[in-house]
Write a structure and sequence with these properties.
transferase; 16SrRNA_methylTrfase_J; alpha/beta; 11 strands; binds S-adenosylmethionine; methyltransferase; SAM-dependent_MTases_sf; 10 helices; methyltransferase activity; 36% helix
């Protein structure tokens, strides 16, 4: 079944229609008859989504064979803040969108001892060193943004068209913001599979290759854990669990001229069963560092 894209502001209909076409989504004009703001606008949206929730529940009830415990029923929305993925669960979770001005991301960058520093240290950004980084599993681009905000040139690769669209939309808005444009200039985004991008990089001379390849594939999560916020559950549902992630490591080590950094849940087995030369442990996740190694 095709995803629907609800455009919530008439002023953005053209951009929203382009997005829907690119993603093969059904375009729906979901704006109110009169432009609304503030509380009235929120009420209009809640009513619209409540109607959709009811239709989805009825459709699911009519199909008792299906196991919906795992499913996150979602629509795309397009509004004055750009493109977002909205899960239609009760209570309604916040939409998932790429917003590089987001306060929690800004805090990660400003906080010298936080997670932002950990990814930067793992990638070797210190004492003014700003390596060329290839983020082969870009997702919603937060790690890439942190690295770029600290001065690194980052190429991002994302293969899931919907996630790529969310990221491209966030990047477009950042390019238009006086506060964010400087960092956005250091980011390039590819819509591709990282394996083919890495194979193409292998043909380049070392000085043209990334110094660091960063890998943060999705880790398989079996159940709908309470720890996973409802909005991120929709993201997981769209992406899946990157079962082919092991294959990226050998290629990444052949391409990177300085190191490969792999982000894993703290207790997860090593990617591809390969032991790293260094581990940086965090509270719930860790960074595994690998030296470059030619393909055997
Ligand atoms: C856990 S998310 C990455 C989150 C990201 N580090 C961030 O800060 O937002 C993993 C992403 O990598 C993408 N991905 C996994 N394997 C890939 C591959 N071989 N090529 C391109 N993208 C890939 C998935 O589609 C998913 O969006």
């Amino acid at each position: 079944m095709s995803l629907a894209l609800y455009c919530l502001t008439q002023a953005h209909a053209e951009l929203a229609q382009e997005q829907a076409q690119r993603l093969g989504a059904i375009f729906v004009a979901g704006w109110p008859e009169q432009p609304l703001a503030g509380r009235e606008q929120n009420q209009h949206r809640r009513q619209l989504f409540a109607g959709l929730q009811t239709r989805i529940t009825e459709a699911n009830d009519g199909n008792s064979q299906a196991d919906h415990t795992d499913s996150a029923e979602s629509v795309l929305i397009y509004d004055e803040h750009g493109l977002a993925l909205q899960t239609l669960e009760k209570p309604l979770p916040g939409p998932v969108r790429v917003d590089f001005a987001d306060a929690s991301l800004q805090r990660r960058i400003a906080n010298g001892h936080g997670a932002g520093e950990a990814v930067a240290r793992a990638c070797g950004l210190r004492k003014g060193a700003t390596p060329r980084v290839l983020d082969a599993t870009a997702g919603l681009g937060r790690d890439s943004w942190i690295l770029a905000s600290l001065g690194a040139q980052v190429e991002m690769v994302e293969r899931v068209p919907l996630v790529h669209a969310l990221l491209a939309d966030g990047l477009r808005r950042a390019q238009q913001s006086a506060q964010l444009a400087g960092t956005a200039e250091r980011l390039i985004l590819h819509a591709d599979d990282a394996q083919s991008v890495l194979r193409a990089k292998l043909l380049l001379p070392p000085e043209a290759r990334p110094e660091v390849v960063y890998l943060d594939p999705m880790f398989p999560h079996r159940e709908k854990s309470a720890k996973v916020k409802k909005d991120m559950w929709a993201f997981r549902h769209v992406v899946g669990s990157d079962e082919d992630a092991d294959a990226l490591l050998a290629l990444a080590r052949a391409v990177a001229t300085k190191r490969v950094v792999v982000k894993r849940p703290r207790i997860a087995p090593d990617l591809n069963g390969d032991e790293p030369h260094q581990r940086m442990l965090g509270q719930s996740s860790r960074f595994d560092l690998y030296t470059p190694r030619a393909l055997s």
